[in-house]
Amino acid sequence: MDVREAAPAVVTGGSRGIGRAVVERLAAYGAPVVFGYATERARAEEVVEAVRAAGGSAWAVRADLAEPDGVDRLFAGADEHLGGRLGVLVNNAAVTGRTAFADASAEEFDRVLAVNARAALLAMQHAERRMAGGGRIVNISSVSTAWPAADEALYAASKGALEQLSRVASRALGPRGITVNTVSPGTTDTDLLRDAVPAEAREAVAGMTPLGRLGRPEDVAAVVAYLAGPDAAWVTGQNIRADGGLV
Ligand code: NDP
């Protein structure tokens, strides 16, 4: 099955950053794409318009993945536009929950884990039910599992959970012809990075990166597109770092 060229896709967090680049890349290969977002309606509409202007098909569905029924709402929207079919799922949406270790609260733990890990588990369950002829699942983690900062307890814990869910899912869904892989970006120039890391520190990380710059959303989208495509048919349970050699 050539999932890359035509299979319908769902991408979480497609309104900006890496998710937007993934949506645009999959749509450019001819995939109809439904993507989720939380609050940024105008930016989501901009992505839909950009995809359509380039000749592709995309629809945006608002669904807060911190809510227990957020994933159900996303897939209800996806079914409406994709007719219940699915070939590719990319779990990309995340929040940083950056806070001093001593201030990490129970409420914040639950919120960060819900968006970054629980939603991915529930989305994979939804995907399995719709991937009748096999499929591709790509989960976006982070180099923070290998190189966690002191104020990233919740984020790093959530990404650690996501990586394990991904490995387990590769075993559970393999017999259905579904591959499950993880992509771990390094520091990538998006809102998430700019909100969490001051400009000086961003420049310092670019200087420490062997390839000499920050990542771009398109750098990560290219790796996702490979894993979502026919050339990766024999690759599952892997975690690929797309970080310019940082870690
Ligand atoms: P951005 O902050 O730029 O975009 C986040 C996306 O997730 C947006 O589309 C946002 O929607 C959506 N989102 C956030 N919270 C929710 C929620 N509660 N419910 C539904 N959707 C939500 O992030 P990036 O593009 O930087 O990151 C994408 C992925 O890459 C994440 O998994 C992140 O952890 C990972 N990553 C990023 C790195 C970086 O340096 N940028 C480094 C390593 C990993 P809305 O626009 O509506 O808010």
Automatic annotation (TrEMBL):
Top EC class of this enzyme: oxidoreductase
SUPFAM superfamilies xref list: NAD(P)-binding Rossmann-fold domains (SSF51735)
Signal sequence annotation: none
Stored Pfam families: adh_short_C2 (PF13561)
SMART domains: PKS_KR
Domain of life, source organism: Bacteria
EC number(s) given by UniProt: 1.1.1.100
GO molecular function term, any single one: 3-oxoacyl-[acyl-carrier-protein] reductase (NADPH) activity
Alphabetized UniProt keyword annotations: Oxidoreductase
Domain Ketoreductase positions: 7-220
Keyword Oxidoreductase on entry: yes
PROSITE patterns, A to Z: ADH_SHORT
Protein family according to the UniProt entry: Belongs to the short-chain dehydrogenases/reductases (SDR) family.
PANTHER family linked to this entry: OXIDOREDUCTASE, SHORT-CHAIN DEHYDROGENASE/REDUCTASE FAMILY (AFU_ORTHOLOGUE AFUA_5G02870), SHORT-CHAIN DEHYDROGENASE_REDUCTASE FAMILY PROTEIN
The protein, known as: 3-oxoacyl-[acyl-carrier protein] reductase
Species of provenance: Nocardiopsis composta
